[in-house]
């Protein structure tokens, strides 16, 4: 009985559960198509693999993930840049930078998050954020900690409207849900803090060296 | 801009969102059929009402909530007692006991010891059985991202891989529901001493029989998750019963 929990064999599932398994695998393979190091095999579902022991639930959460990733396409919801800023903020707040840095630092830049903001949230510094960015970061911290202030709520509602603020609240908590599952299933091995920081600094340094591919990562949306 | 956001008017939503809206309202009304005082109107969705401003994810989460409630009806997963106890522990752990008074009321009917609920509330883990303590510790560690190998192994021995995975996801799902409720103020937060008083009265009443336990089967409804997923394949992501 060791972690990580192994992804179940497709052949062990039948009917609707096998269909659900296939959908989750197909989405992950599309998701990571530009990141081949994240795909260990043609039937890998990546971090969703362990939870495929419950295929219908996993497929349903995958549908939710798709919904949240398309917020930027819906009037009245949050933008791609806000979504990436949420994820990076949570990565720092929940001390799981190593889970998110490989994909989300690059994606954040691609959807328009400022380099200085990426660096600031990954290092837990508010001073380098614009007022708009701080509204997002304060909101994420408040929601995740269960102590969202009236000021932080009002600022976000003024920015996104009621539907947008509800969408964003659910997305923040959805991301926390995914982090806690991955931690419980042991999907991401615990690494020495120094190694995580080294990788983070390397990722941030690589940002400094690029003008940024301002290309929306469609495969993950 | 006060919280909670008001439940939207159904007529302001598009056709697909109206179907989602109806599903959520219908489930809430059924789940409170033994508690008419909790239902303000025929379109009231209770604590889900504010969340209905985003009807599609609200309906998916609602369907997932139904699915998680049915796991005690099948082999190879957690029991109804495990689920109710996990919910109650999460409520205490994340300072949201007010949200789960119905669960505390239902829990004895599925085999949760009232003494165990009181022990968790009062921080007396030594008054729990070994099995209860395993579950309580599992919930705490999973929800805080600190699950130890010892507790993981013990729970996998108890539930098997599928049961462990489903219980883990249920615990984290419940936390996401709590945090959303707290952010949107979907429930009335009361002073700690008032919550303590209500809890004490409820537990005393359940123990001496002056308060009958709830009927949890009213709140265990058939899950349509498989149908949802089939329809999602056809880009019609909500099933209308």
Structural overview:
The complex is a heterodimer of chains A (221) and B (241). Chain A has 221 residues and is mostly helical. In chain A, 61% of the residues lie in helices and 0% in strands. Chain A contains 8 helices and no strands. Chain A has helices spanning 15-31, 55-69, 80-93, 97-110, 115-122, 131-145, 150-185, 193-208. In chain A, helix 3 (80-93) packs parallel to helix 5 (115-122). The longest helix of chain A is centred in the C-terminal third of the chain and has 36 residues, at 150-185. With 241 residues, chain B is mainly α. Chain B is built from 9 helices and no strands. Chain B has helices at 15-31, 55-70, 80-93, 101-106, 114-121, 130-143, 149-184, 192-208, 225-233. In chain B, helix 1 (15-31) packs parallel to helix 2 (55-70). Mean pLDDT of chain B is 93; it is low at 235-241. At the A-B interface, helix 1, helix 2, helix 6 and helix 7 of A face helix 2, helix 6, helix 7 and helix 9 of B.
Q: Keyphrases for this structure?
A:
heterodimer; A: 221 residues; mainly alpha; 8 helices; 61% helix; globular; B: 241 residues; 57% helix; 0% strand; disordered C terminus
Question: From the structure provided, what is the oligomeric state, counting identical versus distinct chains?
Answer: heterodimer
Coarse structural class of chain B: mainly alpha
Poorly predicted runs of 5 or more residues of chain B:
235-241
Low-pLDDT runs of 5+ residues of chain A are none
* Helix percent band of chain A: 55-70%
Q: What is the count of DSSP helices of chain A, taking H or I runs of 4+ residues?
A: 8
Cα-atom radius of gyration of chain A:
18 Å
Query: How does the overall form of chain A come out from the CA principal axes?
Result: globular
The number of distinct β-strands of chain A equals 0
- The residue-averaged pLDDT of chain B reads 93
Q: What distance lies between the first and last C-alpha atoms of chain A, to the nearest angstrom?
A: 35 Å
* Shape annotation of chain B: globular
Strand content of chain B: under 5%
Largest sheet of chain B: none
Strand content of chain A: under 5%
Main sheet summary of chain A: none
Q: Give the helix proportion of chain B (percent range).
A: 55-70%
Structural class of chain A: mainly alpha
Please write the string of helix (H) and strand (E) elements of chain B. Answer: HHHHHHHHH
């Amino acid at each position: 009985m060791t972690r990580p929990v192994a992804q179940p064999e497709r052949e062990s599932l039948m009917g609707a559960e096998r269909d659900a398994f296939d959908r989750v695998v197909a989405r992950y393979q599309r998701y990571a198509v530009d990141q081949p190091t994240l795909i260990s095999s043609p039937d890998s579902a990546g971090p969703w693999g362990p939870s495929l022991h419950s295929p219908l639930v996993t497929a349903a959460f995958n549908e939710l993930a798709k919904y949240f990733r398309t917020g930027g396409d819906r009037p009245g919801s949050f933008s791609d840049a806000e979504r990436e800023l949420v994820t990076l903020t949570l990565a720092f707040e929940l001390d799981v930078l190593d889970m998110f840095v490989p994909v989300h630092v690059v994606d954040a830049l691609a959807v328009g998050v400022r380099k200085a903001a990426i660096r600031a949230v990954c290092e837990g510094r508010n001073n380098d954020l614009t007022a708009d960015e701080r509204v997002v970061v304060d909101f994420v911290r408040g929601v995740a900690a269960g102590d969202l202030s009236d000021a932080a709520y009002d600022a976000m509602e003024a920015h996104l409207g009621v539907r947008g603020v509800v969408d964003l609240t659910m997305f923040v908590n959805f991301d926390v849900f995914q982090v806690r599952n991955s931690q419980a299933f042991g999907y991401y091995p615990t690494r020495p803090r120094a190694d995580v920081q080294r990788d983070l600094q390397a990722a941030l340094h690589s940002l400094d060296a690029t003008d940024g591919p301002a290309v929306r990562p469609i495969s993950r949306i | 801009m006060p919280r909670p956001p008001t439940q939207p008017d159904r007529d302001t939503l598009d056709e697909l969102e109206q179907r989602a809206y109806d599903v959520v309202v219908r489930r809430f009304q059924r789940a409170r059929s033994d508690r008419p005082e909790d239902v303000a109107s025929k379109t009231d969705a209770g604590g889900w009402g504010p969340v209905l401003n985003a009807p599609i994810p609200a309906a998916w989460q609602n369907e997932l909530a139904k699915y998680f409630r049915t796991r005690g009806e099948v082999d190879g997963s957690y029991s109804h007692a495990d689920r109710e106890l996990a919910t109650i522990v999460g409520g205490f752990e994340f300072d949201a006991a007010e949200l789960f008074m119905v669960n505390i009321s239902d829990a004895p009917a599925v085999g949760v010891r009232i003494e165990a609920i009181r022990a968790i509330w009062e921080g007396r883990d030594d008054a729990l059985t070994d099995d209860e303590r395993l579950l309580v510790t599992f919930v705490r560690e999973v929800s805080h991202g600190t699950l130890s190998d010892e507790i993981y192994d013990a729970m996998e021995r108890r539930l098997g891989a599928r049961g462990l995975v489903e219980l883990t996801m249920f615990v984290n799902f419940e936390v996401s529901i709590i945090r959303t409720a707290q952010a949107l103020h979907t429930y009335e937060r009361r002073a700690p001493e008032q919550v303590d008083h209500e809890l004490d009265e409820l537990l005393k009443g359940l123990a001496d029989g002056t308060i009958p336990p709830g009927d949890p089967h009213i709140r265990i409804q058939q899950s349509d998750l498989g149908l949802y997923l089939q329809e999602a394949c056809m880009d019609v992501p909500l099933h209308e019963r």
